[in-house]
Design a protein that fits this description.
This protein is of the alpha/beta class and 257 residues long. It has helices at 10-21, 71-79, 82-89, 125-140, 159-167, 182-192, 212-223, 243-247, and strands spanning 2-6, 25-30, 39-43, 59-62, 96-100, 112-114, 145-150, 152-154, 170-171, 174-177, 179-181, 201-204, 210-211, 229-230, 235-236, 238-240. The strands form five sheets. The chain has a seven-stranded parallel beta sheet with strand order 3-2-1-4-5-7-12, sandwiched between helices. The chain has a three-stranded mixed beta sheet with strand order 13-10-15. It starts with a strand and ends in a 10-residue tail after the last helix. 35% of the residues are buried.
Length: 257
């Protein structure tokens, strides 16, 4: 298959490498030069996308991210790009388009359980714009579109977490954290290309929601640092579970962070 990546960051690069190893042809769209030898790299603005000069595309991955988290940046990156992307793909025989969104489309923020059956009711404008993007793609590609909603993406025990362990003396409340390892996310994106009968959307997370202060405490104990004090048992965030992901038969390689 000829597979197109619109947006070619770290997750796309991992997925593309796996797909190339499986024998697929890879083309990428990004705004800066890329050097992976196994792919054909095009530098284009997604708002003026021109795919007339490439071989017919069978499948598409859309993984865009704004340069900043403002409402304006979300509007431009996620919503305003859908129509030109859909227009550029019109002449291609698209069998599947996999669009990466976010669990930000769920507005719960008091420790509630969220799963694939939870109705997406965003609590902020960025979440509403992500949901609008999803709906626009589903309208443009009703039979081919699959939405993937990952939780927080991580790659390793980060320097940021170690610094938090060193600096945190107290924590205001129970803040639920949900994570997915970047390699598991990339593998799931590849896996979804071959699922015959798909749902419209899938949460992608490690199914191990954890209060962030507990993770910091674990690191503090491992490093022999002073332990933080929890100031309140009130809860923020949400506990997210990826039931549809597991129902596909996909298996995680990283079950906690």
């Amino acid at each position: 298959m000829h597979i197109l990546f619109i947006g070619y960051g770290k997750t796309s690069q991992r997925a593309a490498k796996l797909l190339f190893a499986a024998g697929h042809q890879i083309t990428t769209i990004s705004q800066s030069p890329k050097t992976d030898a196994y792919a054909n790299h095009l530098i284009q603005d997604v708002h003026q996308l021109d795919l007339s000069g490439i071989a017919p595309v069978d499948a598409v991955y859309v993984l865009l991210s704004p340069n900043e988290s403002t409402v304006e940046a979300y509007q431009q990156t996620y919503v305003d790009s859908v129509q030109p992307i859909a227009q550029a793909l019109k002449t291609h025989p698209i069998r599947r388009i996999i669009v990466v969104s976010s669990t930000r489309v769920y507005g719960e923020n008091a420790g509630e359980r969220v799963d694939d059956d939870t109705v997406a009711l965003p609590s902020d404008e960025q979440g509403r714009l992500l949901l609008q993007m999803e709906q626009l793609y589903q309208t443009a590609f009703p039979a081919q579109c699959v939405i993937i909603r990952p939780t927080g993406i991580y790659s390793s025990a980060s320097a940021r977490m170690q610094k938090l362990a060193e600096m945190t003396k107290s924590y205001p409340n129970i803040q639920w954290s949900n994570r997915i390892h970047i390699d598991d996310l990339a593998r799931f994106l590849v896996f979804m290309l071959h699922v015959e009968h798909t749902e419209k959307s899938y949460i992608c997370t490690n199914n191990y929601p954890q209060p962030l202060h507990e993770r910091i405490l674990e690191l503090q104990r491992e490093l022999g640092l002073p332990e933080l004090v929890l100031q309140s048992n009130s809860e923020t965030g949400k506990r997210i579970f990826a039931e549809r992901m597991l129902e596909t038969g996909f298996q995680l390689e990283h079950d906690c962070f």
